[in-house]
Amino acid sequence: MSRYGEFAYVYDQLMADVPYDDWAEFFNQQVAKAKTKPDSILDLACGTGELSVRFAQEGFSVVGVDLSDDMLMVAQEKAVEAGVTLSLFQQNMAELELLKEFDCVVIFCDSLNYLQSDKEVQETIQRVYKHLKPGGLFIFDVHSVHKMKGVFGNQSFSYVDEDVSYIWNCTYDDTDMRVEHDITFFAYDEEIDAYHRFDEVHAQRTWSIDHYQSWLSEAGFINIEVSADFKMSEPTSNSERIFFSAQKKEAE
Fold this sequence. Notes:
alpha/beta
């Protein structure tokens, strides 16, 4: 087993059933709807590069940013294997500072939910605005309040496979709609021909749709649209994933 990052190593195995193609298709639909012709994409919280590589294969110039160096190492390996070029940077999205602007910025796979305060989310939205070209498109998704409370709640999940298994306990705090994910992994290590245990604790927090819309407006975004669960339809009380699309104002 590669030791440059335990969680980065198992991440793609655990996310094998995640519908990355649906995110890519949703992105293309939003771009077509906005009648833009983007060349450059900033993929914030790009993780192991699953979507970054897809975007690059479609001909976009892609910059990926993630907080984890280990994730970025995996993303770089994927780019080399796919024969595409990615520019990758290790940064906190709430402190984003790059020396260029982009046609599109995306934060997919509920990555914005890992920010733990109003200030961090607002700062991220403001920095995204600064890194967009006039008329540029910002698309992101978050867990709904329903999913945090009704799906994660105070639930336990498990997964068993020959290479990786886990026990996943969720603790929900209704005061700030926060879920703490406490996960114990058992990953097979070929070097020692045994299973290696390690633990991960991740916290996610969400806010109401009105909060996100308000923060987008305050940052200067226009044409703010909200939909749910990879569809163009409006969210309902049972929607689990909320999508936002917004544009930076055109230069005056």
